[in-house]
Amino acid sequence: MDSAASQKSIIALDGWLQTPAGAYVRAWEEACLDELVVDMFGYNAVQIGLPQIDALRANRMPNKWQAATRTSNTEQLELSRAGKQIAVALDFAELPFASQSLDLVVLPHVLEFAAEPHQVLREVERVLIAEGQVIICGFNPASLWGLRQGVGKLTRSHYLPVAGEFISMPRMKDWLKLLNLGVSRSHFGCYAPPCRTAHWIERCAFLEPAGQRWWPYLGAVYMVHAIKRVKGMTMIGPAWNKKSAAASQAVPATNRKHKNTNE
User: How far apart are CA 160 and CA 148, in angstroms?
Assistant: First the structure.
């Protein structure tokens, strides 16, 4: 998948998120993200892609960035109101931030629609500080939705955007392990069958607690939380102060290849 095809795929996902099934996924993911990010501390947090999902709304870091391939005027206004600065990245394989400058990166459904998902993950590892954290959201191919998508490719009646290459949880964990990103927690959700109307999705709400208890790994979407590990380094505790907080700012794209003198 080239960059142009990748951007078309992300645009297709933008449209799908406005459907009843998309709203269902957004609601679950934002609730789960709220629980994960509320107690994550630092100075610089970035959400890459999909401004429709507000991944950082519960986080209290002073600097929040939104990196997207495109942002409309409406999206810019919403992000400004949410206290986020906008960093437009034409290619997620080259993030516009300095090495070791970010405390938290959130990737909602970016890797499965990226032209080079491995390179995107390498960029995330590059920009994260030691013990920095990354959260990844993805569609689970080992679910009823994944099965429905497979059938749709044969019948040409797709439920999810057709261009996405969905990545299983074990495969995702292997990729993270290769980059010394140790998985801390993982979550599955959205156990309703692949319905197209809000009425039927609501009628299947009873499947959420049942799925969590009886078939937890078959949720339609998953979330992985990982931490960047640095060999030979032990974190004793936060050594931040107000002076370093003011100086520790993410560096824009023009300086991304130069060492940040404040690190």
Answer: 9
Cβ(103)–Cβ(249) below 8 Å: no
Contact 187, 222 (CB under 8 A): yes
Tens digits of residue pLDDT in 138-152: 999 999 999 999 888
Helical residues (DSSP H) of the chain, grouped into ranges: 3-16, 20-37, 73-81, 117-127, 144-155, 169-178, 198-203, 207-214, 242-247
Q: Cα(221)–Cα(137) distance, rounded to whole angstroms? A: 7
pTM score, two decimals?
0.82
Q: Could you read off the pLDDT of 33-48 as tens digits, one per residue?
A: 999 999 999 999 999 9
Non-local CB neighbours of 167 within 8 Å, separated by 6+ positions: 111, 112, 117, 138, 141, 175
Provide φ and ψ at 32, rounded to 5°. Answer: -70, -40
